């Protein structure tokens, strides 16, 4: 191969590299801009994850309280709507359980709920859960018998709506009731394999006598092929 041919080959390889880079950046830009006006950027940092509260379920792995560091990320202000679900079919973006809890706490430290330690605020319900006698009578004192609109109730300190109650939210982590031991866990993403994914937040079917998993540290799980009317998700993207 002569010098001219080598030069042309090198130029073609350089052009291909540039095109591949531009294509990758275009994809990243598309991901970032898609309904980007509803994404809330969070700075990340250390927080206390989990709970040692007496109301917690030890068997679910809610504890012990542990220091976790999460990198900066952006998360949907709302749980996804049915209209947005079609986009998700083509491109998955579940967030990790640690990101979920960091975002759901809204900047509060070790509070039971995203708004504080009391279930109601000024005797008013601030999330969509079962009121009355489960499972025979839902008084709907919060205003809803089934799912509520994604913007119902006030957002938490980070601006996220309905992180307690309404619908369970999938996380990317495989479920385990044990956690790695470390002084600080950096961006943990759960076990490498499993049979069920983590769900967080509780739903409109949760009641203290039966579930009591609308607390911010509460956890549950389900198999990835499960489909229910009280389960949704919220997308996130690393920054």
Please explain how this structure is put together.
The protein is α+β, with helices and mostly antiparallel strands. 21% of the residues lie in helices and 20% in strands. The protein contains three helices and 14 strands. The protein has helices spanning 3-33, 82-90, 97-105, and strands at residues 39-42, 45-49, 66-70, 73-76, 120-121, 124-125, 132-133, 137-138, 168-174, 185-186, 197-200, 220-222, 231-232, 236-238. The strands form five sheets. It has a four-stranded mixed sheet with strand order 12-11-9-13. It starts with a helix and ends with a strand.
Main sheet: which strands, in order across?
A: 12-11-9-13
- Supply Rg: 21 Å
The CATH class of the largest domain turns out to be: Alpha Beta
Find the structural class using helix and strand composition.
Answer: alpha+beta
Q: Write the element-wise H/E pattern from the N-terminal end onward.
A: HEEEEHHEEEEEEEEEE
CATH homology-level superfamily of the largest domain:
paralog of FGE (formylglycine-generating enzyme)
Shape: globular
Let me know the number of strands.
14
């Amino acid at each position: 191969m002569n010098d001219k041919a080598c030069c042309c080959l090198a130029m073609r390889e350089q052009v291909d590299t540039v095109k591949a880079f531009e294509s990758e950046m275009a994809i990243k830009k598309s991901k970032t801009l898609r309904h980007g006006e509803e994404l809330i950027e969070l700075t990340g940092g250390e927080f206390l994850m989990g709970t040692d509260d007496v109301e917690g379920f030890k068997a679910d792995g809610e504890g012990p309280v542990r220091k976790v560091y999460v990198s900066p990320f952006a998360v949907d202000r709302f749980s996804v709507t049915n209209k947005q679900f079609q986009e998700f079919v083509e491109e998955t973006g579940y967030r990790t359980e640690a990101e979920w809890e960091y975002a759901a706490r809204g900047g509060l430290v070790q509070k039971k709920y995203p708004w504080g330690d009391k279930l109601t605020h000024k005797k008013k319900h601030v999330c969509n859960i079962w009121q009355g006698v489960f499972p025979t009578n839902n008084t709907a004192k919060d205003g809803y018998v089934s799912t509520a609109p994604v913007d119902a109730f006030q957002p938490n300190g980070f601006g996220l709506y309905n992180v307690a109650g309404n619908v369970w939210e999938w996380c990317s982590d495989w479920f385990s009731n044990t956690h790695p031991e470390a002084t600080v866990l950096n961006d943990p993403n759960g076990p490498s394999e499993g049979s069920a994914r983590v769900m967080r937040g509780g739903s409109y079917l949760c009641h203290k006598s039966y579930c009591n998993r609308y607390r911010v540290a509460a956890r549950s799980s389900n198999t990835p092929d499960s489909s229910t009317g009280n389960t949704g998700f919220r997308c996130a993207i690393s920054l």
